[in-house]
Design a protein that fits this description.
Number of helices: 3
Strand content: 25-35%
CATH architecture of the largest domain: Roll
Order of helices and strands: EHEEEHEHEEE
Structural class: alpha/beta
Distance between the termini: 40 Å
CATH class of the largest domain: Alpha Beta
Number of strands: 8
Number of domains: 2
Strand order of the largest sheet: 1-4-3-2
Oligomer: single chain
Length: about 130
Protein backbone atom coordinates (compact mmCIF):
# COMPACT_ATOMS: atom_id res chain seq x y z
CA UNK A 1 0.00 0.00 0.00
CA UNK A 2 1.13 3.54 -0.74
CA UNK A 3 -0.50 6.58 0.88
CA UNK A 4 -1.22 8.69 -2.21
CA UNK A 5 -2.57 12.05 -1.03
CA UNK A 6 -4.86 14.08 1.15
CA UNK A 7 -7.71 15.68 -0.80
CA UNK A 8 -9.49 18.85 0.23
CA UNK A 9 -12.92 19.46 -1.32
CA UNK A 10 -13.79 23.09 -2.03
CA UNK A 11 -16.31 25.28 -3.84
CA UNK A 12 -13.43 27.38 -5.22
CA UNK A 13 -10.51 25.31 -6.50
CA UNK A 14 -8.52 28.24 -7.99
CA UNK A 15 -8.71 30.22 -4.73
CA UNK A 16 -7.53 27.31 -2.59
CA UNK A 17 -4.80 26.35 -5.06
CA UNK A 18 -3.52 29.96 -5.07
CA UNK A 19 -3.45 29.92 -1.27
CA UNK A 20 -1.45 26.69 -1.03
CA UNK A 21 0.90 27.63 -3.86
CA UNK A 22 1.69 30.90 -2.11
CA UNK A 23 1.88 29.40 1.38
CA UNK A 24 4.12 26.48 0.38
CA UNK A 25 6.03 27.74 -2.64
CA UNK A 26 4.96 24.60 -4.53
CA UNK A 27 3.32 24.94 -7.95
CA UNK A 28 0.18 22.94 -8.57
CA UNK A 29 -0.32 20.48 -11.38
CA UNK A 30 -3.82 20.82 -12.83
CA UNK A 31 -5.69 17.81 -14.24
CA UNK A 32 -8.67 20.01 -15.17
CA UNK A 33 -10.62 22.91 -13.68
CA UNK A 34 -11.98 20.65 -10.94
CA UNK A 35 -8.77 19.05 -9.70
CA UNK A 36 -5.18 20.07 -8.91
CA UNK A 37 -2.32 18.60 -6.89
CA UNK A 38 0.59 20.13 -5.02
CA UNK A 39 3.29 17.46 -4.90
CA UNK A 40 6.19 17.52 -2.47
CA UNK A 41 8.84 14.83 -2.04
CA UNK A 42 7.00 13.41 0.97
CA UNK A 43 3.27 14.03 0.34
CA UNK A 44 0.67 15.28 -2.11
CA UNK A 45 -2.11 17.72 -1.35
CA UNK A 46 -4.99 17.27 -3.79
CA UNK A 47 -7.66 19.93 -4.18
CA UNK A 48 -10.95 18.92 -5.74
CA UNK A 49 -14.15 20.70 -6.61
CA UNK A 50 -17.48 19.90 -5.02
CA UNK A 51 -18.49 18.89 -8.55
CA UNK A 52 -16.33 15.76 -8.12
CA UNK A 53 -18.10 14.54 -4.97
CA UNK A 54 -21.09 12.92 -6.73
CA UNK A 55 -18.66 10.83 -8.77
CA UNK A 56 -17.67 9.08 -5.51
CA UNK A 57 -20.88 9.25 -3.50
CA UNK A 58 -23.37 12.16 -3.50
CA UNK A 59 -23.21 14.16 -0.27
CA UNK A 60 -20.17 12.29 1.07
CA UNK A 61 -17.98 15.40 1.43
CA UNK A 62 -18.77 19.06 2.12
CA UNK A 63 -16.43 22.00 1.64
CA UNK A 64 -15.36 24.25 4.50
CA UNK A 65 -16.72 21.76 7.05
CA UNK A 66 -13.53 20.25 8.51
CA UNK A 67 -13.14 20.33 12.28
CA UNK A 68 -10.93 17.29 12.84
CA UNK A 69 -7.99 17.32 10.43
CA UNK A 70 -4.86 19.49 10.47
CA UNK A 71 -2.77 19.69 7.29
CA UNK A 72 0.88 19.80 8.36
CA UNK A 73 3.93 21.07 6.53
CA UNK A 74 7.42 20.56 7.95
CA UNK A 75 9.62 23.58 7.24
CA UNK A 76 13.18 24.60 8.01
CA UNK A 77 12.27 27.83 9.84
CA UNK A 78 8.69 28.34 11.00
CA UNK A 79 9.42 31.90 12.12
CA UNK A 80 10.53 32.80 8.57
CA UNK A 81 7.34 31.22 7.19
CA UNK A 82 5.30 33.32 9.61
CA UNK A 83 7.11 36.49 8.53
CA UNK A 84 6.45 35.59 4.90
CA UNK A 85 2.74 34.81 5.40
CA UNK A 86 1.80 37.68 7.75
CA UNK A 87 0.66 39.98 4.95
CA UNK A 88 -0.95 37.14 3.00
CA UNK A 89 -2.80 34.77 5.33
CA UNK A 90 -5.75 36.24 7.19
CA UNK A 91 -6.68 33.76 9.91
CA UNK A 92 -3.80 32.92 12.23
CA UNK A 93 -4.78 30.63 15.09
CA UNK A 94 -1.43 31.16 16.80
CA UNK A 95 1.90 32.80 16.12
CA UNK A 96 5.00 30.59 16.13
CA UNK A 97 4.93 28.73 19.43
CA UNK A 98 7.26 26.17 20.94
CA UNK A 99 5.10 23.17 21.79
CA UNK A 100 5.65 21.05 24.93
CA UNK A 101 7.26 18.31 22.77
CA UNK A 102 9.74 20.86 21.40
CA UNK A 103 8.47 21.52 17.87
CA UNK A 104 7.98 25.13 16.88
CA UNK A 105 4.53 25.48 15.33
CA UNK A 106 2.46 28.05 13.42
CA UNK A 107 -1.24 27.30 13.09
CA UNK A 108 -3.55 29.11 10.66
CA UNK A 109 -6.69 28.51 8.63
CA UNK A 110 -6.82 28.33 4.85
CA UNK A 111 -9.57 30.26 2.98
CA UNK A 112 -12.02 27.37 3.56
CA UNK A 113 -11.29 27.28 7.30
CA UNK A 114 -9.13 24.12 7.28
CA UNK A 115 -6.41 24.10 9.91
CA UNK A 116 -2.86 24.27 8.56
CA UNK A 117 0.21 23.73 10.71
CA UNK A 118 3.68 24.78 9.61
CA UNK A 119 6.23 23.35 12.01
CA UNK A 120 9.95 23.06 12.58
CA UNK A 121 10.96 19.86 14.39
CA UNK A 122 12.61 20.07 17.77
CA UNK A 123 16.37 19.80 17.82
CA UNK A 124 17.82 16.72 19.45
CA UNK A 125 17.79 17.15 23.19
CA UNK A 126 20.62 16.08 25.41
CA UNK A 127 18.40 16.03 28.49
CA UNK A 128 14.69 15.25 28.86
CA UNK A 129 12.38 18.26 29.12
CA UNK A 130 11.49 19.41 32.64
Amino acid sequence: MHFASTRVITDDVPRLVRFYERATGVSATWANEDFAELRTPSATLAIGSTRTVPLFAPGSARPADNRSVILEFRVGDVDAVYDDLRGFARDFVNEPTTMPWGNRSLLLRDPDGNLVNFFTPATHRTTPPA
